[in-house]
Amino acid sequence: MEQEPHHTTPAFARQPVTVTVRPISAAETYALRHAVLWPDKPMAYVQLPDDLDGQHFGAFTNGSPAEELVSIISLFIDDSGEARFRKFATAPDWQGKGTGTALLKYTIEAAVKLGATSIWCDARQSALGFYRRFGMSGEGAVFFKGEVPYLRMSRPLP
Predict the structure, then answer these.
(1) Are strands 82-90 and 148-156 parallel, antiparallel or unpaired?
(2) Whole-angstrom distance, CA of residue 155 vs CA of residue 158
(3) What is the predicted pLDDT for the residue at 66?
(4) Where does the pLDDT of residue 2 fall: very low under 50, low under 70, confident under 90, or very high at 90 and above?
(5) Which of 59, 65, 85, 153 is the most buried (most CB within 10 A)?
């Protein structure tokens, strides 16, 4: 599915910076996934067996001298119309500036366009407030991946 790039300026940026969100390849997500989510694990740890079946999106700065990939996310939709996003990561210097918000909005819109009826993720407990702003709510009990606590978050889609 070809989508138009989405442009946004992070709400809390000190200087106006334009962020462009667009589809990318699975391989383009690996370096940021690794650096942000699991830097102490081998690179293979952040590669998913179903990466080739998913859609992957990236948020890029339009800075100088060249654009930079600063946030990534991967979307998977099953045959029942349930969408799941995984490996959502934003470079530390870009967290809290609206970059991840723009990327998740884009991803939710893509899921709706693809006919998904609900969306969910395994959210790090430290990010639950972020996901609640998107109308997501927790399900079940907290679980751990290594030493990191997670909670499944979900919401229906229009």
Answers:
(1) unpaired
(2) 10
(3) 77
(4) very low
(5) 59
